[in-house]
Amino acid sequence: MEFTHFDEDGNAIMVDVSDKEITKRTAYARGTIQVNHEIIEHIKNNTIEKGDVLGVARIAGIMAAKKTSDMIPLCHILMITNVTVDFEIDEEINQIHAFATVKCKGKTGVEMEALHAVSVTLLTIYDMCKAISKEMEIKNIHLLKKTGGKSGEFNWQEK
């Protein structure tokens, strides 16, 4: 197996995408935070002392997508054209699912940006709700789908 982030001497390098074609690229990621019923009720009723939890988390996720190359070594700086962060609240099992969609036209994909957006979104929910309970679990962060680029389309297969 050939690793793309190392040169022939084993030194870490940024992958050279100079000769790649510019294509439309989209990545969809998802993650979950397990909370308790009290936190769900506070979020639904917008009664968390720090403010609108999902609104702030959405902005944090969008900002994270835009700053991915600052946080992930060797990640390319991309001209992102769109980021969305959405939520589903499952009151039956006290979970909040975060979904991020990131788009660009470029020479490399936006999977890391979508995953980073979801991660920071969920961390923000944790931060804003930890005064109520620190017993929250962030889990199942993964890429759902990606389109564009040389490797084509990817779709998550539930196991």
Task: Give a verbal description of the structure.
Homohexamer; trimer of dimers. Helices cover 29% and strands 30% of the residues. It has 159 residues and is of the alpha+beta class. The chain has a single domain (28-148), classed as Alpha-Beta Plaits (2-Layer Sandwich). A hairpin with a 4-residue loop joins strand 2 (80-90) and strand 3 (95-106). Helix 2 (53-66) packs antiparallel against helix 4. The longest helix has 19 residues, at 111-129. It is elongated and about 55 Å long.
Element layout with pairings:
Layout: E1 23-34, H1 37-45, H2 53-66, H3 68-71, E2 80-90, E3 95-106, H4 111-129, E4 137-147, E5 154-155
Antiparallel strand pairs: 1-3, 1-4, 2-3, 4-5
Helix pairs in contact: 2-4
Enzyme class: lyase
Organism: Catenibacterium faecis
Family: Belongs to the MoaC family.
Can you tag this structure with a few keywords?
159 residues; Alpha-Beta Plaits; five-stranded antiparallel sheet; 4 helices; elongated; lyase; Mopterin_CF_biosynth-C_dom; molybdenum cofactor biosynthesis; MoaC_bact/euk
